[in-house]
Structure formats: structure tokens, C-alpha cells
Amino acid sequence: MTEAMIRKKAGMATVKDMPLLQDGPPPGGFAPVRFARRIPNTGPSALAIFLTAFGAFSWGMYQVGVGNKKRRVIKEEKYAARRAILPMLQAEEDERFVKEWNKYLEEEARIMKDVPGWKVGESVYNSGKWMPPATGELRPDVWSLGLQETMQVSCSLIVASDHFTE
């Protein structure tokens, strides 16, 4: 079936059948068209940017200086506290060292008791200067127990063999 039969009208509408309507200007006319070159303002001038950057940099450097002064005061206070407590810490370390040294001498005497002419605690280097033992030698908290015993025995054997060669 065709559309004309369904609607009971003539077929499709054509342009000729449409009412005539033409666009025109609004009442009072269109606004004037601006056609002149208009460059927008791109922001602050170079001088304003330079002065702002210089001011921010100067303020930042001032703050760095203030921070350095505070840090220097805190550092000096920390060093003063360390200098104040150092004698006490050194006394504690000396006490610990003497106890460990006595244990070391007793162990040396026990190990070297059968060596004739061996003097317990005497330096084998004969340099005339007292030198503390090698790092960790008298520090059982640094070495594991098995390694410490092994090293003491092997060191004593080395010292004993050096004594026999002289």
C-alpha cells in the first residue's frame, strides 16, 4: 500500500508544496564584524617575571641561610653532648678491655704453660710501643664463640712457633 492510500492524502510533499520562508537579519541588523588584528595580552612583562623570580630566589636563599644557622646550632649541641659523655664511655670501654685482657692473659698462660721461657703478656714485636689488639680480638660480642676459640688457639700456636725460631 502506498502512503497516499494510508493517509488519505496525496503522496510525498515536494519543495513546491512547502511555504516560502527566507532568513533575514534580525531587527536592528547584525552587530558589526571586527576584522582588525587584535593580539591578546600574553601575560606579565619580562621585567615583572624577572623581578618575581629574583625575589623568590632571594627569599629562598635567605631561608637556606636561616636553616644552615639552625642546623649548625643543633650540630654544635650534639658535639658538645658527645664531648661531655666521651670520658664516661671511654672509662666503660677501658674497664671492659681490662677484664677481657685479663681473661686473655689467663688463657695465654694456660695454653703456653708448657713452653719454657714464655712470658705471659709480653709483646712479641719488641717495638717499644703498646698497641691495642687487632680489631675484634678481645671482643667476644663481635666474634662467634667457635671462631673466637679457633682464632685464639691458632694465634697462640703461631706466637709459640715464632718464639721457638728466635
TrEMBL record:
Highest taxon of source: Eukaryota
Protein name (Swiss-Prot/TrEMBL): NADH dehydrogenase [ubiquinone] 1 alpha subcomplex subunit 13
Species per Swiss-Prot/TrEMBL record: Anisodus tanguticus
Transmembrane feature ranges: 45-62
Pfam families the record matches: GRIM-19
Membership in a protein family: Belongs to the complex I NDUFA13 subunit family.
Cellular component annotations (GO), alphabetically ordered: mitochondrial inner membrane; respiratory chain complex I
Subcellular locations according to the entry: Mitochondrion inner membrane
